[in-house]
Amino acid sequence: MSNSIDNQVVMDMEECFRSFDLPVYKNKNTNDNDLAFTSQICNDHVCADVFATYDTQIGYVGIDFSFRDKVPSEKMPEILQLLNLLNGYRPLYGFSVCQRCNTISLRSDIFLSTEILPRDEFKRLISDILEDVYLCSPLIKDVVDGGNYKELHDRFMEGHKDILNMGSKPPRNIDGKILSDMESVITDLKIHINNKDRTVNEFISDLKLDEMVSIRMSITLSHENKIVVLYAAPPFNVPNEKMTVVTELVNLINRMVKQGHLYIYPQTNRVHIIKGIIIDNGGLDKKEFEMSIRTLLGNSRIFFPIITEQLSSNESPEFLLAKINKNHEACCKTK
Predict the structure, then answer these.
(1) Which residue, among 263, 243, 244, 267, has the nearest Cα to 303 in the 3D structure?
(2) Does an H or E element contain 36, and which?
(3) Is residue 87 part of a domain?
């Protein structure tokens, strides 16, 4: 780390990890300049290596849980479909599979609007991830062991209905200040809101980003869950015969994308980008909110055209993704 401010961010990250009884191993003998430190978790449900990162140039801190158990190649299609379903309810982080090493990762990033780690937000993220890892690991194992991913997922969601409520109900005791701050940022970005579609806690906008990309963007305040959720979706659906290959492409994108992840909404076969912002401190970080919108729009411009091309192409997802950025191949992290 280059200076005392960077060191303080990392030390605060370490302290947050230790508050959950997670070990901290210093970054040694690695070429990854963003890697702050490593950790691990191993219990009756899951064993995973944990990588904490700090990108000082852009201002992101990240957490990556890399599960040690490997997915058999013959079960990869079912696991990809299961993880896609799970990702639709998780705006703060997303699952993906490294198809070269057959391991599952759960990744998240937080944008730092200042040179200070938002400790409450970071600890909330760790807590949510640990809970989800604990709950979802047996589900993933059951699918690997031969269970039907759809039946097991539906049974899992029935037993955890609180997950289904993420952002789906109008919040009680709406915080007018947060909504006002959201609206001011949206206005400053010159984004037109469709008032006919506006709800008590949601902003909706139809945007034409360029000649190739049009999207519907929605931004929802879920006060009950203390989170703002951003969605972007193109106007096309994925045909059933293309679902397998597009799911593979979405998984590869999720291996590389920062600030949000993609999933295919099963009721419509429509691809979405989803991003969540924690508001545990009772207020909206307007700079983080603005950056999240900009990143959502930027990722829409990059990834929706490649998904469109996949629908009309016989090329592999790896080939199409390499056309965007040959320097961002999906890869495994190792100690």
Answers:
(1) 263
(2) strand 35-42
(3) yes
Compute φ and ψ for 171, nearest 5 degrees. -70, 145
3-state SS of 78-96? Answer: HHHHHHHHHHCCCCCCEEE
Q: How far apart are the two ends of the chain, measured CA to CA in Å? A: 18
Do the domain assignments include residue 112? yes
Residue type at position 203: F
Residue-wise pLDDT tens digits, 84-115: 999 998 999 999 999 789 999 999 999 998 88
| Cα(332)–Cα(103) distance, integer angstroms | 8
- Tokens describing residue 184: 């001011």
Q: Where are the beta strands (DSSP E) in 112-267?
A: 202-208, 214-222, 227-233, 261-265
Label residues 247-272 b or e (16+ Cβ within 10 Å = b).
Answer: bbbbbbbbbbbbbbbbbbbeeeebbb
Tens-digit pLDDT profile for residues 269-308: 999 999 999 987 668 899 999 999 999 999 999 999 999 9
Q: Contact 167/220 with Cβ under 8 angstroms?
A: yes
CATH number at residue 311: 3.30.1460.10
User: What six digits make up the tokens of 95?
Assistant: 């699952």
Residues with Cβ within 8 Å of residue 135, at least 6 apart in sequence: 156, 160
To the question of pTM greater than 0.85 for the whole model, the response is yes
